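Table S2 (text version). Query chain:
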Amino acid sequence: MAEIFTQSACIQFSQMFLLLIFFRSSKYLLAVAIHGKSNVTLESFLIDKQHIIDLGLSFLEYLIEVYFSIKTDLSLWWISYIGLAMVITGEIIRKVAIITAGNAFTHSIRTDRDKRHNMVTCGIYRYICHPGYMGYLIWSVGAQIMLCNPLATIVFAFVIWRPFAHRLA
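Corresponding structure-token output:
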């Protein structure tokens, strides 16, 4: 039986939890600063049953691969660092988008145009049409690469790309 909590597994797992905590808490603080605490709800963060299931399956894949010693080769750490760089890049893109858009940025996916909404075309929006979506896509896929989860990387890329595809293309 393999040792599950090797030093490398603990480093990857703790990095993931710290990044999740930072991602969610900074998102909350920015939303409160921009929209006011009374306008921020749990639904604003897209944390739903499916999100929790996806995250759980991602961690399950990670633990299964660690348990069966699939992730013991330290020569693959460069892959994890590429994923970490993607997570940081995605986080920066998303946070810059939130700050640039200000009140125009919402945490809910819109399917219809809001008449009161003004299109933001300055800052990062000059270069990326929907930087909030793009940042989240890069962050989510990067997190799976950071954990060296091949199956979850493919699934997350597809699942996240699908609803945003017409916005990001």
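Notes on Table S2: The first helix runs from residue 7 to 35. Residues 130 and 167 are 7 Å apart (CA to CA).
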